[in-house]
Amino acid sequence: MCGTPRSGPPRPQGPQARCALGRRCTVSEKCRCPRPGWTMTPPRNVVKIAIQMRDAIPQLIQLDQVPPLLCPTSSPLFLLRSCQDLEAEQLLGGLQSDSREGRLEALRHFVPLASDMTFAREVISRNGLQRLGTIIEDGDDLGEVLALSLRAFLELMEHGVVSWETLSIPFVRKVVCYVNMNLMDASVPPLALGLLESVTLSSPALGQLVKSEVPLDRLLVHLQVMNQQLQTKAMALLTALLQGASPVERKHMLDYLWQRNLRQFIYKNIIHSAAPMGDEMAHHLYVLQALTLGLLEPRMRTPLDPYSQEQREQLQVLRQAAFEVEGESSGTGLSADRRRSLCAREFRKLGFSNSNPAQDLERVPPGLLALDNMLYFSRNAPSAYSRFVLENSSREDKHECPFARGSIQLTVLLCELLHVGEPCSETAQDFSPMFFGQDQSFHELFCVGIQLLNKTWKEMRATQEDFDKVMQVVREQLARTLALKPTSLELFRTKVNALTYGEVLRLRQTERLHQEGTLAPPILELREKLKPELMGLIRQQRLLRLCEGTLFRKISSRRRQDKLWFCCLSPNHKLLQYGDMEEGASPPTLESLPEQLPVADMRALLTGKDCPHVREKGSGKQNKDLYELAFSISYDRGEEEAYLNFIAPSKREFYLWTDGLSALLGSPMSSEQTRLDLEQLLTMETKLRLLELENVPIPEQPPPVPPPPTNFNFCYDCSIAEP
Which InterPro entries does the annotation name (predicted)? Predict the structure, then answer.
């Protein structure tokens, strides 16, 4: 009721007097109209509740309990829903219906609710998983009922309330049957494949069962169907089986897959497909590439054994391929000592640092992998190999490019660039299309690289003392070209050969000009004066980026997920609005996003391992990239502290969002991207302001002021008129 007025209009008088707002308020009812100057307390019949209006965003409103809920016309004012426990009880009852239509109707309502954690807990506590499992195991209906049951089962299991290891062997075998049989309903195989992938990744024992029951040929059949969803799920199960296999089993599986032309099919029908590739398929191709290159790790970690007859013979084959004519003609009739001396000299010409080449190959990495590369080059490109060795043998000693030493270092470099032997990332999508366009891609890449080394060596006119400098240039040439993701080895060869030493120097100089600035005190002072204005521009850009919004991917602690959600900042910078969306859908409008987080409720920004959704994942190398992309917002939800968790799609998006959120919280924007943007803006603005001083040297210190003259007789008195 109204309290004592501080100032404002008088209270209404009389039984039907009008108040200050023009409404009729009786004296007995007391005027509760909001008026300037009056302090008010809400009446007892008005309560605050959260409601969802029809086709509108949920909101908190004040509800007067006196009027009826139904409008005088027709439609209800509120959309009232059953609570989760009643909904779960009713739908689970529908799953036990005797009629197919009853079960189908219950499943259609069940699937959209299964992603809700509260609903999932209610269903699981009422043995809902067992009821769904019974429908799946019975297999009475291989159409929509089975598809919806599998989808609902997957949604419930994704919450992590129940472990995948608790699934029974008969249940897993039944799902395997759905993968192995030809079904009329095309939506069932992708769901069955997705379920088996989760089982394989989460349970080693059940994974072995899946490996023994699902033939590789069956997965190849699914991959050849021109259905992106089915191809993605088949590739997901394939990579999961490869990850769960032992190194020996993995090698046999990959050898069989390559024999069945899987590489060619991926290259022609997936990489070069007319439809754009999804993120999940890109990740699985990255995993397949990493696992295939991982087969090289044992050779990379194994040093040459000087007592191995096979390895000694391989070294002799390498020597004879380069010096066959010279060696055979001059070695005939020589004593054993003379022949050993000749071999040692020829190994030196090959570029080994020691007369005994075994000592060079004892280093790991690259170990025996370097010897494999050299043998592959000599056998598959004999003309280029002989030309490399003989050309450098004819040069002066200090100008010859050492083939063996360069091969060893180049092998190490390729292993680092291609991450050979490193664990697979959970989210990376950085595969090389060229890898699937060529057999023996690692060795072929070496063949291109070793010829590039010789070419760059000549361009730099290098000597033995410049070996490390040349290798740095070659590393930069290879890294820059690989970053372009050429689709074939020939395209890679063309691009990397076009990146000459002179071009590398030009690129370095350009980058240096973009990054470096003069250190003269006047310029530093100017830069400091420009910083506040430019930081304001960066802040404005970050907030505009948040207003545009970003599509994020939900990632569980177990594996990558298909689910996407969109988040953006409202134009008035007061709300974060977000909600789930389907892959490939157009960006949603602000009105269609159901969830809101007021900026005023935000407490702090957390990044990396401090985020609650990655805190429990451990510190393995495979999670490093996940930590680098994770950030969370802590906010007040009533009296509790809640979190809104993010996994950025890229490092750039991570920087943009953490900067924008920091700006909203009033914290400094301290990301690496802010530093680079500020440096770029400072450099550009400084150059613009100094255009008139181009080619004018700016001194480190201002010039000294000269001392005053001994007298001022040279001054002219203008007041004295000339005669």
Answer: ARM-type_fold (IPR016024), ELMO_ARM (IPR024574), ELMO_dom (IPR006816), ELMO_domain-containing (IPR050868), PH-like_dom_sf (IPR011993), PH_domain (IPR001849)
